């Protein structure tokens, strides 16, 4: 289907990487999945002759977020959740807050829904007043890809109201210790759907696993919209394993280490001229603007470094690149090359 949009909504960071390039484009945590999780996945193969049973994983997620099991829907990643929502809902006025990950809009359009964009500007923070009152579906990312901005929970909560579905994509929320500003536990907010993914923190992009937390009625609609058994047995094993306290402590430790690496990147960027950090970053990547220079991505690529282009995101242009937080030595190489280019 042709999307009626001038942006390539299906472009992703993995298209930027290639042989011989250092990957600063993909936001999956390096060194993942951890060995204990690999072991669990390998062991799960003993059970793949049977159809998957989501009962244990669903219960683990429900316990983690203190929600009834009826409000938990395991999904084949956040990407499947976007498609299920687009199938299950009949919005009269769907609004996607941009710049953000483009698959939610793509899924809505593919299901035949018109999409209205609210474009954030300036420091890319969200003013709830910018979302039209008539919107009966609002999609926002928190923290947002590619801006790395984390919106306060209170600001997002103000968008929830009866008669509206508010979808908050929290694929990157566990990149901060303790998951501040998560709405995952807020079963009390009307129409709130929180989407989570195991892709980034656990290095499971190829496994396809995440979940939706939604009011029971909508959760039932999402289950009905899904193909049978779309979440595999290994994916469900990972979901159960990563919902426990030990995994959460590990994610928190990884988030603390990432924050130190991000400080290193920000300090290095401050020391060079011509590259401005577009917004205060809260996630495992930084959005950088190079005013007057739209060739930075290609020039970095010439020098063996892949960063994520910004111009496929509504509201951004080719003066923007998204840079993944990496170990200090990788960052130093990147910023050194960037300084020479600029
Ligand atoms: C913000 C955001 N949400 C959701 C996803 C989808 O992730 P997955 O389908 O692997 O869970 C991505 C992937 O890049 C993302 O960046």
TrEMBL record:
UniProt xrefs under InterPro entries: Aminotransferase_I/II_large (IPR004839), NHTrfase_class1_PyrdxlP-BS (IPR004838), PyrdxlP-dep_Trfase (IPR015424), PyrdxlP-dep_Trfase_major (IPR015421), PyrdxlP-dep_Trfase_small (IPR015422)
Annotated GO MF terms: threonine-phosphate decarboxylase activity
Highest rank taxon of the organism: Bacteria
Annotated Gene3D superfamilies: Aspartate Aminotransferase, domain 1 (3.90.1150.10), Type I PLP-dependent aspartate aminotransferase-like (Major domain) (3.40.640.10)
Protein EC: 2.6.1.-
SUPFAM superfamilies per the UniProt record, alphabetical: PLP-dependent transferases (SSF53383)
Cofactor: pyridoxal 5'-phosphate
Domain Aminotransferase class I/classII large, residue spans: 22-339
UniProtKB keywords: Aminotransferase, Lyase, Pyridoxal phosphate, Transferase
Family stated for the protein in its record: Belongs to the class-I pyridoxal-phosphate-dependent aminotransferase family.
NCBIfam families documented for this protein: PRK07908.1
Protein name: Aminotransferase
